[in-house]
Amino acid sequence: MTIEIRVPQLPESVADATLVAWRKQPGETVSRDENLADLETDKVVLEVPAPSVGVLKELRVQAGATVKSGDLIAIFEAGAAAATPSKASKPAAKETAKAAAKEPAKEAAKLGPAARRVVEEHGVDPSTVAGSGRDGRVTKGDVEAHVAKQGAAPAAPAAAASAPAPVASAPTATVGGPRAEQRVPMTRLRQRIAERLVQAQRTAALLTTFNEVDLSAVGELRARHKDRFEKEHGVKLGFMSFFVKASIEALRKFPVMNAAVDGTDIIYHEYYDIGVAVSTDRGLVVPVLRDAQAMGFAQIEKRIADYGTRARAGGLALEELQGGTFTITNGGVFGSMLSTPILNAPQSAILGMHKIQDRAVVVGGQVVVRPMMYLAVSYDHRIIDGREAVQFLVAIKDALEDPGRMLLGV
């Protein structure tokens, strides 16, 4: 039975998508729900699953094309099988076909778009990679760790393979080597990031204030309870949950930091949807902790860990990236000492975390070494005054330097 493969219904706020790559080619046999193609929107990568066991017969749209909901992109023959190779086929081709047939379909289904690209670049058999993601999903990090362990070298780029061999009589190359350039189109996500950041700088009166926090108390609390916490809740106790909790306490005291501008109105949110920036190979995404004020430390840590894993595997749903009233970004994981984060419009404030570093500080008249972190809050000066921004950051500092405040609500 012939089936038309069409673009699935895109989310309401997404007008179109880019067909990034075909994962199956005409004539290939596929299993039910196996991914046929990747569709990239400005927020997430969507997969086009096979409707049943069968053969992909014809591609109607090539990779790189822009498509909309319901567009016809391929023809699929349900229940069919790929043509049997002729007797003249080379033994090597037969062996390749056998190897492909042996690869479990479920292994392909467990690969996200990011992980799949790394698998293809390094020629890795995905069935040999242990998945650490949700439901055993193989993440990009899993593949990279496997490659590092095996010492596998990435496949040579096509451009390098096709480059002409140097002529013996050619003049000696310059000291700097070839001055190559590449022109690569932005991904949809990168285009969207660029658009939003430029919009934030163009429409908001951005200003940043700084402070520093002594994380000794948080570090001691984590060290004292981390083993029991992980045993009880099945997740590690990190720093991010403390910062989310401290931010909520400060937002309660200074509600304008949780507000947004709408024309000549200010919208004060009476809930706390905290966005947590996650870096992926495709760019920065900000999944949202809905009603974070109702979450405990374990819930926050579990949700952030889940978001991070699925973000890097390209598995976040669009609704998980929408909204948010306040954002936290952590450049410290990359070694950043200080930065001025840009607003995640239409939000009016964003907290920047940085690297924790032992520094000499004066406490009670004595010079001591403490684990210190610089904090930064960028805010929209149209509705937030400097006094409020500074006091907000001080409130976060106070909560972190005396974590008991968060339990007692003082």
Tag the structure with descriptive keywords.
410 residues; OB fold (Dihydrolipoamide Acetyltransferase, E2P); Chloramphenicol Acetyltransferase; 4-stranded antiparallel beta sheet; 11 helices; 19 strands; globular
What does this structure look like?
This protein is α+β, with helices and mostly antiparallel strands. The protein folds into two domains: 2-82 and 89-157, Beta Barrel (OB fold (Dihydrolipoamide Acetyltransferase, E2P)), CATH 2.40.50; 189-408, Chloramphenicol acetyltransferase-like domain (Chloramphenicol Acetyltransferase), CATH 3.30.559. It has helices at 91-102, 105-109, 113-122, 140-150, 158-161, 188-203, 216-233, 240-253, 297-312, 386-401, 404-408, and strands at residues 2-6, 17-22, 29-30, 35-40, 45-49, 54-59, 66-67, 72-78, 206-214, 259-262, 265-268, 274-276, 278-280, 283-285, 288-289, 326-330, 349-353, 357-363, 366-380. Strands 9, 12, 15, 16, 17, 18 and 19 form a seven-stranded mixed beta sheet that branches. Strands 1-8-6-3 form a four-stranded antiparallel beta sheet, with no helix packed on it. The protein has a four-stranded antiparallel beta sheet with strand order 5-4-2-7, with no helix packed on it. Helix 3 runs parallel beside helix 4, helix 8 crosses helix 9 (297-312) and helix 8 packs across helix 10. The N and C termini lie far apart (67 Å).
